[in-house]
Fold this sequence. Notes:
- By secondary structure, this protein is of the alpha+beta class.
- The protein has a single domain, classed as 3-Layer(aba) Sandwich (Aminopeptidase).
- The chain has 4 helices and 6 strands, in the order E-E-H-H-H-E-E-E-H-E.
- A 6-stranded mixed β-sheet has the order 1-2-3-4-5-6, with helices on both faces.
- A hairpin with a 3-residue loop joins strand 1 and strand 2.
- The longest helix has 16 residues.
- The chain is globular.
- The relative contact order is 0.20.
Amino acid sequence: MYVELHTARLVLRPIGLNDFKTAHKYAADPDLTKYMLYLPDKTEADTLNFLLFAENEWKKINPDDFEFAICCNGAHIIGGINLAHIGNDIYEMGWIIDKPYHGNGYCTEAAKEVVLFAKSLGANKIIAQ
């Protein structure tokens, strides 16, 4: 499955191995990830394993986990946002934005679009941690 979502300023597209350099930069940052459940990535192998998992999920006809790269100004990746199917009509969402892009409303903009996508999948409840 391939899904690409668009907002006024952003493109949300499947994240993958080609995004390693940028994704590892923010996923390994202890300041950015201090409140996240599964981060920081302590090694490059951690990030590679995550990206491989994300690519494999996107290859499924009906993924349970949608890992999007948040792209601004064309293809420039500024972070990531996830939507995970956790049971029946319940989904969980999480996100991360690299430090230089904080305070611009990018997470809010991306999250609103992902909520619409979740509803199109049949979501009746969406949680974020």
